[in-house]
């Protein structure tokens, strides 16, 4: 569906925000993971045709969207990280405005989307008075107005409470059954239960691309569990990578990333996805929070 070929984005001669990224993305939910400054936003802006790559190609269903941006724009939904609303417009009026821009003429769809993001009871309230989480949900609704084939969302759960986060993750997962959803985040828990693939970026480069199960499979035999006495903790921490530490009645319970048993009493543990990413031989631990 979407293919990136050797995509580069340079802002200065010596700084590449995106450095020779190649990807082939079919339908499904792709989690784009990396620390701030890893190149995630620059990559998404190029896919959304907001900026052009310095070099390389981005193909959508075979069309080069760098040269033919309209090939994707009518089939694209985009929610940027910094999303604002217009003063004096109600939630419904806000959607009506964007619906007109996108050529959507079905009033019932606007109501349906407001209900989908749990704002139907606030349709006639001025959106400028919404909380940050409510404005985020309104942004999600506008991104879905044209029933896009490609949906790009940047830090989608920022400002949402736990119930809203769960609802939104479920919504994105359902959309990914038949369409391409690209979710940028530095929080692994946001995408671990819905992503079909994960793309890990670090310093502009794509350092890993695989399924969540493959990341976890690779990390098996590299994560260990052990409880140590408190006085031994500092010495052990200086020698190995501690993933988690929690005090209990027996001492300090640790989960450790290591290629072999890190100390006496350590037993293999089933890695979580976050732990799996942190144990990759790439510099993924820097990219994950």
TrEMBL record:
It holds the Pfam family ABC_tran. This is ATP-binding cassette domain-containing protein. The keyword ATP-binding applies. GO terms for molecular function: ATP binding; ATP hydrolysis activity. Keywords: ATP-binding, Cell membrane, Membrane, Nucleotide-binding, Transport. Belongs to the ABC transporter superfamily. CDD domains: ABC_drug_resistance_like (cd03264). InterPro entries: AAA+_ATPase (IPR003593), ABC_transporter-like_ATP-bd (IPR003439), ABC_transporter-like_CS (IPR017871), P-loop_NTPase (IPR027417). Residues 2-228 form the ABC transporter domain.
């Amino acid at each position: 569906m979407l293919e990136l070929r050797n995509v580069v984005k340079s802002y200065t001669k010596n700084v590449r925000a995106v450095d020779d990224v190649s990807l082939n993305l079919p339908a499904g939910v792709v989690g784009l993971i990396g620390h701030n400054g890893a190149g995630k936003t620059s990559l998404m802006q190029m896919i959304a045709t907001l900026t052009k790559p310095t070099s390389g190609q981005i193909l959508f269903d075979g069309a080069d969207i760098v040269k033919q941006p309209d090939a994707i724009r009518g089939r694209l939904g985009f929610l940027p990280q910094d999303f604002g609303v217009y003063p004096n417009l109600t939630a419904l009026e806000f959607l009506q405005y964007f619906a007109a821009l996108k050529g959507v003429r079905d009033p019932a769809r606007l109501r349906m989307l407001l209900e989908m993001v749990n704002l139907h009871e606030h349709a006639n309230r001025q959106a400028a008075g919404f909380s940050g989480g409510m404005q985020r949900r309104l942004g999600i609704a506008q991104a879905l107005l044209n029933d896009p084939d490609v949906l790009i969302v940047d830090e989608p759960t920022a400002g949402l409470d736990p119930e809203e986060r769960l609802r939104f993750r479920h919504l994105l997962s359902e959309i990914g059954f038949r369409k391409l959803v690209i979710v940028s985040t530095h929080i692994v828990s946001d995408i671990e239960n819905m992503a079909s693939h994960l793309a890990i970026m670090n310093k502009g480069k794509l350092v890993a691309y695989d399924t969540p199960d493959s990341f976890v499979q690779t990390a098996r035999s590299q994560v260990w569990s052990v409880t140590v006495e408190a006085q031994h903790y500092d010495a052990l921490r200086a020698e190995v990578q501690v993933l988690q530490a929690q005090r209990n009645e027996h001492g300090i319970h640790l989960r450790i990333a290591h290629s072999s048993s890190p100390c006496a009493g350590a037993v293999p543990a089933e890695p979580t996805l976050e732990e799996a990413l942190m144990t990759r031989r790439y510099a993924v631990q820097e990219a994950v929070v």
